Amino acid sequence: MRRLKERLAGKKEEAQEKRFMIADMEKGERPREKIFNSGVRSLSNAELLAVLLRSGVRKENVIDMSRRILGECNNSFDVLRGMEPQQLLTFKGIGDEKASTLLAAFEMARRAGETPAEDQPVFASSEDVFSLMRPIIGELKHEECWALFLNRRHRLIHKERISLGGVAATVVDPRIVLHKALACLASSFVLVHNHPSGTASPGEADITQTKKLAQAAGTCDITLLDHIIICSNDYFSFLDNGLMPDL
After folding, report:
1. Domains of the chain: residue spans and CATH
2. Least packed by Cβ within 10 Å: which of 4, 126, 172, 231?
């Protein structure tokens, strides 16, 4: 009788854990639904982690569990990615299966970033930048700002989204851009952002932001080569139009 009670109690706990799987969440709150409706970039860090973890623990749904884990990692994927398997297992709710999933995802990301330097594109014109970035941000319904970090030969070292904005604007913090440029030993970089409005012409805020960033970069002996605004079928280059600050 005692064993029967233990089995029933175990099944009850298992049912409670299943209740916190992504598939059991409200449709509008499911990260996987959001990926297909709004794109994977619309997910928060916790939601991205939740997609990999799939289920939470008793009395804690998978998104809350993801928030807790990220909170214990200073809200940094880099901290989580640097952990050994046994460290991952110390988090409540992460067992062998979830730890293996995370480790595999991080390894895939690492290998994806291992493109040999000689295979990276060289930017000889604003059109080269437009060709690279249009498929990434040209059709978005919100603004995103990216930086393309280059070596002395204008070969791409690294590209990264710097900020995410709303329908009409995004704000770039020069400290963040320069920190990343210094981290990858870039000699120069190109700033790129999109205008969901469909008009590539810069506004006063774009011009002011460009001047501020170029001046800050100059103090670190790094050159802001160009600022390019992209729309679905058009672009505007500050350099081509003589708007780059003369420092």
Report:
1. 2-112 (no CATH), 117-237 (3.40.140.10)
2. 4
| Sheet of 144-150, strand order | 156-164, 144-150, 188-194, 223-230, 235-237
pLDDT (tens digit per residue) in 42-78: 889 999 999 999 999 988 989 999 999 999 998 888 8
Model-level pTM? 0.56
